[in-house]
């Protein structure tokens, strides 16, 4: 494990990981979880593309408070590490959408190629803004964790 600050470890992790699980709640209070492919910015906001009619998109439109988790795909207990996040999410429009889409296409260049280029244009672009996180890293010792509130 390189000798990096916790913030540097989280930044490196977010840059190398590609998928997260998004947890929302529907109008009846039922939980919903969906896997998304994300990109992040320097404020650890996560962005993804999704249909506006998908259950999780509809849910966050009504109740923007959500949870996310992203983790390294490891089977060995001593290698498990990842993030648990709380915050809120919303659909992006206009310039914010264009900025997020540029970040997304840098990480996932395939979206500029057919058939994805046409499909992406028809989808919503969403942003998750974390307000709290827990970084879990068993590589630093079983059960090791770091928690942080994020002021906005």
- In the CATH hierarchy, the architecture is Roll
Number of strands: 8
Distance between the termini: 30 Å
Integer average pLDDT: 94
- Count of alpha/pi helices: 4
Poorly predicted regions are: none
Strand content: 35-45%
Supply the CATH superfamily name. Electron Transport, Fmn-binding Protein, Chain A
Characterize the main sheet. Answer: 8 strands, antiparallel
Helix content percent band: 25-40%
Please report the first level of CATH classification, the CATH class: Mainly Beta
What would you call the shape?
globular
Q: What is the count of structural domains?
A: 1
Helices and strands, in order, run as: HEEEEHEEHHEE
CATH topology: Pnp Oxidase, Chain A
- From the alpha-carbon coordinates, what is the Rg to the nearest angstrom? 16 Å
The secondary-structure class comes to: alpha+beta
């Amino acid at each position: 494990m390189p000798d990096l600050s916790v913030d540097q470890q989280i930044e490196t992790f977010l840059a190398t990981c590609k998928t997260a699980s998004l947890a929302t709640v529907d109008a009846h209070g039922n939980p919903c979880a969906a896997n998304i492919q994300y990109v992040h910015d320097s404020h650890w906001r996560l962005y993804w593309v999704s249909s506006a009619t998908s259950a999780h998109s509809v849910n966050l439109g009504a109740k923007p408070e959500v949870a996310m988790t992203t983790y390294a795909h490891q089977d060995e207990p001593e290698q498990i590490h990842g993030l648990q996040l709380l915050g809120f999410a919303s659909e992006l429009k206009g310039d914010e959408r264009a900025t997020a889409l540029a970040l997304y296409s840098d990480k996932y260049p395939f979206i500029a190629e057919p058939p994805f280029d046409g499909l992406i244009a028809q989808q919503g672009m969403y942003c998750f803004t974390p307000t709290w996180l827990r970084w879990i890293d068993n590589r630093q010792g079983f059960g090791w964790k770091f928690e942080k509130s994020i002021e906005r």
